[in-house]
Design goal:
The structure holds two protein chains of two kinds.
Chain A (H helix, E strand, L loop, with lengths): L1 H5 L10 H16 L7 E4 L5 E4 L5 H21 L1 H6 L5 H19 L1 H13 L19 H14 L19 H12 L7 H8 L5 H22 L1 H21 L5 H14 L15 H17 L3 H6 L9 H11 L2 H8 L2 H7 L2 E5 L5 E6 L6 H11 L2 H4 L2 E7 L7 E7 L7 H15 L3 E7 L7 E5 L2 H6 L1
Parallel strand pairs in A: 6-7
Antiparallel strand pairs in A: 1-2, 3-4, 5-6, 7-8
Chain B lengths: L15 H10 L1 H14 L9 E6 L17 E5 L10 E3 L8 H8 L6 E6 L1 H8 L19 E9 L9 H14 L5 H16 L5 H23 L10 E8 L5 E8 L6 H21 L3 E8 L3 E4 L1 H6 L8 H15 L6 E8 L7 H13 L5 E7 L2 H7 L7 H12 L3 E6 L2 H12 L3 H6 L1
Parallel strand pairs in B: 7-8, 7-10, 10-11, 11-12
Antiparallel strand pairs in B: 1-4, 5-6, 8-9
Helix pairs in contact in B: 2-14, 6-7, 8-14, 10-11, 11-13
The chains are: A alpha+beta, B alpha/beta.
């Protein structure tokens, strides 16, 4: 069990020292009793695979199956993010390919050379997903075919008509420099949010196998991207489902009271939410919030109060909680789910309050609490905190002059004045430099004010040697 | 639809490769930590694996992430008991521990340290990396009787237990395909068609012709099937094993320790530590190294491991007795022609008057010609170290041995004064190649 979840929860993964580090770390914690093992691992493949731990008692095993094999499985198969962005059919084959490919590369080029690429790629994983355009289906190594298709398309797309356009007056054109900039940006598809994709396609120094490694890491990152955006809903859905199933089993007399109690004991541990001043507090528990929200929706559907009728006129009292929840599981992600369905009652139950910390002010101020004036604000802020695009820094590749000094320009769009962590940004930039082979510049640009709070530059590898 | 599959029999330790990769990557840091650990451990568990902590620099995985300070942050917390909108809270001082700090250190991974456990084998491997017994030359290959079967391809002859089914079936299948051996299925098909025809009562001429044809065809196929066997003796392959002599070099290490009254608790402790390290090293790196433990006061005696390391003894000091004992044991049990002989001697350097000369004489004329390597470790107190610091001078025995050291390449001597000296000195004594160059 430890084995599997240290390589990002996949039963099949290429080898890398960082997985070993995580394994050693988790093993240590487990041995000391700081951390229990997850009862189960569930994999979004087709068919969905769920691993149950051998040591679980029968009651827990039932809980785990209800949770993972039904709850998570339902969510994976029906949520739009997973449907559109991941390819459950192909993932195991792809990982198998990835593992074989990495092993082959290690045999051919040496473990150290492969590790160097993987280290750099792993550092850029978070910035290497397509957020706005849908990725292509997973396929194992068909670069050539793709290229041929592209050439054929270009050939078919040739239009004689364009050459008959009258010549344009020189003066009307924008000046040459800007023209060049735009031309090369268009040619390289800049700006590009997917850093590894850009490097894989355009890096002047990488060899083919190195590009393929980047593609593997990038595809893995892409596969996990929906999970990041739906962590709370996914767990909430699974918890709601297992809670419903075991209660149903008990009502039908298929499990005993003792079993139910054991399950409930475990269940209540999972959905426990300590307050912010509790030593056990480590952020909002996704299980607790997700489960509570879904239970709450069920309540709104079946036993609505006047407040619910006012806040949720569409669903209050319509009795079809099953349909409503299925619709929610299919069509929302964490951010939109909270924004739409966090009820005032839950805000009161959790006693949520909003703190804001502004650089200009000497104090942290309490902006909103669980009262009539605060509901909207708390809900909006909570939803925003689940927005992955806000949680992760917005970093894009904006310019490179392939014919000039080849310096790569990466821009971090600074929001709310929050800059990148100084210690790590140089290290990561260094990794980009290794993959790019020439100098790299990182600019933090505050889009609201146009200010430039920081700029970092790492020299090209050969410049460094000279120095 | 749920399928339950029992995968418990799958090989364990899938992460072993990853773990080894990690250890390799952090090798340098781990080595430092292990070296440090060995000087801090108690005698009894010097060779155990166990927890070590290494600086997390070099094994970090940097990612772009938002800085936690500066800028405007908004965050929602649960569990509000007392706050109302507009309340102001003092900002925590810069650099103070936030809520994440405590959690991190509990987990064993503080900001700068990464703590984990090494197994005993891993620990010793790292500890004794790059060390070896010098000049292991009498590898008496021709005298070894041990042979071990090694895989050596395939053969046409062999015994049934060595049958290689995969090869055999591959050959069989290739031959059947080439010779076009009729498949059982094909015959069955024709047979069933024939049966069908024969079941009918009135057959027209064409059908009768077909039936006759089928009978012939089936007979022909069956004949060919008999003629071309499913598995022919020519298909059969056996795994072949060749006996190979296992090179085994025989070596013996003599451990000579002074346990006289002049050795205080401190000195004895250091001496034992040195020998325990030596013992572990030999056990780990050399499968078959004999160990002979000799301890001496004014008399010497050969003792077993347990007594050597753990029993108390007191008396005068006469070093030559140990050397004589060693010489006798070599003569009785370890013929020089077959054995690589090593010796390590630890002493506080005291000796009774006139005996040092005897020792030097014994060493130069009797023992060193027999030995591959002889290490002498003199254990000093801190004051003595200060006295001899910067000089190559030492106590009684050291001064005597100085002449030997000058003359013999295979002799070396070192001072040890505190625990932390032991391992570096040990490394110097057994570092790879270093000594050999001197001999050459």
């Amino acid at each position: 069990m430890l084995d599997a979840y240290c390589s990002v929860g996949m039963p099949l993964m290429y080898e890398h020292w960082s997985f070993g580090k995580r394994f050693i770390h988790d093993e240590e914690r487990y041995r000391k009793g700081y951390q229990g093992l997850a009862y189960e691992i569930v994999i979004n493949s087709s068919p969905c695979i769920s691993y149950c731990m051998e040591e679980n008692t029968m009651a827990i095993q039932a809980l785990v199956m209800a949770h993972a094999a039904f709850g998570h499985n339902h969510f994976f198969k029906n949520n739009y993010l997973f449907q559109q962005w991941t390819d459950a059919e192909a993932i195991l084959d792809y990982l198998d390919f990835a593992k074989r490919y990495v092993t082959e590369c290690e045999e051919r080029h040496g473990v150290a050379a492969v590790e160097e690429i993987l280290d750099a790629a792993h550092a850029l994983m978070d910035q290497s997903v397509f957020r706005y355009r849908r990725p292509s289906k997973l396929k194992a190594g068909e670069a050539e075919e793709r290229e041929r298709d592209l050439r054929e398309h270009d050939a078919q797309d040739f239009r004689e008509l364009w050459s008959t356009l009258p010549p344009v007056d020189e003066a009307e054109l924008p000046d040459q420099a800007e023209c060049d900039l735009n031309a090369r940006k268009a040619r390289l598809n800049l700006p590009e949010e997917n850093i590894l994709y850009f490097l894989q396609k355009n890096s002047p120094v990488l060899e083919d196998w190195q590009r393929e490694l980047l593609r593997i890491v990038r595809n893995t990152a892409q596969y996990f991207y929906p999970q990041k955006q739906t962590k709370m809903m996914n767990e909430g859905c699974a918890t709601f489902v297992h809670y419903h199933i075991v209660n149903e089993l008990y009502d039908r007399g298929q499990i005993t009271e003792g079993t139910l109690l054991e399950i409930l004991h475990s269940h209540s541990n999972v959905v426990f939410q300590p307050g912010f001043d509790d030593p056990r507090f480590s952020g909002l528990n996704p299980y607790a919030l997700g489960f509570a929200m879904m239970q709450d929706i069920r309540r709104i559907c079946t036993e609505p109060t006047d407040e619910d009728r006012e806040w949720f006129p569409d669903i209050a009292g319509n009795d079809d909680w099953r349909g409503i929840l299925k619709d929610i599981w299919a069509n929302y992600r964490d951010e939109s789910f909270i924004l739409q369905y966090l009820s005032p009652k839950l805000i009161r139950d959790f006693k949520l309050f909003l703190l804001s910390d502004r650089a200009a002010q000497p104090h942290i101020s309490v902006d909103a609490i669980h009262n009539a004036q605060g509901y909207e604000e708390v809900r909006k802020a909570l939803a925003a905190s689940y927005d992955v695009s806000a949680m992760e820094p917005d970093i894009q590749i904006v310019d490179v002059d392939l014919k000039g000094d080849r310096e790569l320009v990466v821009r971090h769009a600074v929001q709310d004045g929050i800059v990148l962590d100084e210690k790590t940004r140089v290290d990561v930039l260094d990794y980009i430099g290794r993959l790019w082979g020439y100098a790299v510049r990182l600019e933090g640009i505050d889009l609201a004010t146009g200010r430039n709070p920081y700029t970092e530059r790492v020299a090209a590898p050969d410049e460094k040697d000279a120095a | 639809m749920i399928h339950l599959i029992d995968r418990r029999l799958n090989p364990r330790d899938k992460s072993l490769g990853n773990r080894q990769r990690f250890l390799k990557r952090a090798r340098r840091q781990i080595k430092e930590a292990v070296d440090k650990a060995i000087s801090e451990r108690d005698v009894a568990d010097a060779g155990q694996g166990g927890k070590i902590s290494i600086p997390s620099k070099g094994i970090t995985e940097p990612r772009f992430r938002h800085s936690s300070t500066g800028g405007n942050h908004e965050r929602v917390f649960p569990g509000n008991e007392e706050y109302v909108p507009g309340d102001k809270i003092q900002k925590p001082p810069k650099g103070g521990a936030g809520s994440g700090g405590k959690e991190a250190s509990e987990g064993g991974e503080g900001a700068d340290e990464f703590v984990f456990s090494l197994s005993r084998a891993e620990f010793l491997d790292i500890l004794f990396e790059d060390l070896e017994l010098p000049d292991m030359i009498k590898a008496t290959l021709k005298e070894t009787h041990a042979v071990k079967p090694h895989r050596a391809g395939y053969s046409n002859y062999g015994t049934t237990p060595n049958l290689n089914v995969l090869r055999t079936m591959r050959n069989s299948m290739g031959r059947r395909v080439v010779l076009n051996r009729p498949k059982a299925g094909a015959i069955l098909e024709l047979q069933s068609e024939l049966d069908e025809l024969q079941a009918q009562d009135d057959l027209d001429a064409a059908q009768r012709l077909r039936a006759a044809e089928l009978v012939n065809e089936i007979a022909d196929l069956k004949r060919r099937q008999r003629a071309i066997p499913y598995i022919d003796p020519v298909d059969i392959r056996y795994n072949r094993f060749d006996p190979k002599p296992e090179p085994k070099s025989k070596a013996v290490m003599f451990c000579l320790m002074d346990v006289s009254g002049s050795m205080g608790q401190h000195e004895k402790d250091l001496a034992k530590r040195f020998f325990i390290l030596l013992h572990l090293f030999l056990q780990r790196k050399y499968e078959r190294v004999e160990l002979v433990f000799i301890r001496h006061t004014h008399v010497a005696q050969e003792v077993d491991e347990e007594t050597f390391f753990y029993s108390q003894e007191s008396g005068g000091t006469k070093v030559s007795t140990a050397l004589v004992e060693m010489q006798e044991i070599i003569r009785d049990r370890f013929p020089v022609s077959d054995w690589n002989i090593y010796a390590a001697q630890a002493s506080d350097g005291d000796n009774i008057a006139n005996d040092t000369g005897t020792c030097v004489d014994l060493l130069e004329n009797e023992l060193l010609p027999l030995c591959q390597y002889y290490a002498y470790v003199e254990i000093l107190t801190e004051q003595e170290v200060a006295r001899y610091a910067g000089t190559s001078n030492g106590k009684e025995l050291w001064r005597g041995y100085q002449a030997v050291d000058d003359q013999w390449g295979k002799f070396s001597m070192k001072h040890i004064a505190k625990r932390s000296d032991i391992y570096p000195v040990f490394r110097e004594l057994f570092a790879k190649n270093d000594k050999r160059d001197r001999v050459a």
